[in-house]
Write a structure and sequence with these properties.
The protein is mainly α and about 300 residues long. The protein has one domain (about 25-295): Tetracycline Repressor, domain 2. About 75% of the residues lie in helices and about 0% in strands. It contains 14 helices and no strands. The protein has helices at about 5-20, 30-40, 45-70, 75-80, 95-115, 115-135, 145-150, 155-165, 170-190, 195-200, 205-210, 210-235, 240-260, 265-295. The protein is globular.
Length: about 300
């Protein structure tokens, strides 16, 4: 028999998880783990370091998404697609959301401190960058690229945290992530084209139209694939990674085939299903490529 006292707690936790779309962590988390594997090729990497990288990344994202929900609460309440989000639906109060953001910001700073002094110092500007995305769409069509840039800090951050050094090579993975995120964020924004135009929010679909937005998204993903390819040479990867590139290329083509100018119904499938598979495929490919290099 279930303990009735635990059910409200579980329900409350699930509400917070839905507020920040915790499942979407799967887009960037594999890139941070991939950076850890690439770092392992050249430096000793311990499990404690990986643990604190995971804590830092998930807490930073949680804080940023919580802040975004607070900043966008007024817009979400007016948008049919988002009106059932936790804050406009009054499942979570603004005060509770603010406490959530503060708590996870502190967890991020603490995890960063556990990774070293440099990471601790950088934790504060990183939080500002992550949270300021919430206001970028008020001012510029480039908000998609800004989001991509903010999230692309994950691989280079993981590299610095685990190796205590900087490498230009890891920037290739960050650039791939930036264009990858920007590309599918443009697709996602197509759902709100009418709302964004009505409320004066900036997005490429709202500013340039669906056709041009889809074309720009394709270009973004071509750039992402280009950087994925450069990683092969920069880190001297092998056959398994080439197979990974082939799979990612096919998945990107599928993503842009199922989202068409005259049919936006499958944006949800392209946004979550296809992109989550791409992220996981990248990590798995790099992981097994490294295993074969070491033990076969």
């Amino acid at each position: 028999m279930k303990n009735n006292k635990t059910m409200p707690l579980i329900e409350n936790i699930s509400i917070y998880f839905r507020m920040i779309k915790f499942s979407h962590t799967i887009f960037a988390l594999p890139f941070a783990l991939a950076a850890a594997i690439l770092a392992w090729r050249q430096y000793p990497v311990d499990l404690a370091g990986i643990f604190w990288v995971l804590v830092a990344m998930t807490s930073a994202r949680s804080a940023a998404m919580g802040f975004n929900r607070i900043a966008d609460a007024g817009f979400d309440a007016k948008n049919i697609r988002t009106v059932r989000r936790a804050i406009p639906a009054k499942d979570i109060s603004l005060v509770s959301a603010a406490i959530f953001v503060l708590l996870f910001s502190l967890v991020f700073v603490f995890a960063s401190a556990m990774l070293g002094r440099i990471c601790f110092y950088f934790a504060f500007p990183v939080l500002i960058i992550l949270c300021s995305y919430s206001y970028a769409k008020r001012f510029t069509l480039l908000s998609h690229l800004y989001l991509g840039f903010a999230i692309s800090l994950a691989p280079v951050g993981a590299w610095i945290a685990l190796t205590k050094t900087f490498s230009f090579s890891i920037l290739l993975l960050s650039m791939a992530l930036m264009f990858y995120i920007a590309g599918f964020d443009i697709l996602y924004a197509c759902q709100d084209i009418d709302f964004d135009r009505k409320t004066g929010l900036y997005s490429i679909p709202a500013g340039l139209g669906i056709k041009k937005a889809l074309m720009i998204s394709t270009i973004m993903h071509f750039c992402a694939f280009f950087f994925f390819c450069l990683i092969y040479f920069a880190f001297d990867l092998h056959l398994i990674y080439l197979l990974t590139l082939f799979i990612i290329g096919i998945l990107l083509i599928i993503e842009h085939k199922i989202v068409r100018f005259d049919d936006l119904e499958k944006i949800g499938i392209a946004f979550f299903n296809v992109n989550s598979v791409i992220s996981i495929t990248l990590f798995v490919g790099i992981f097994f490529d490294e295993l074969t290099r070491r033990w076969i």
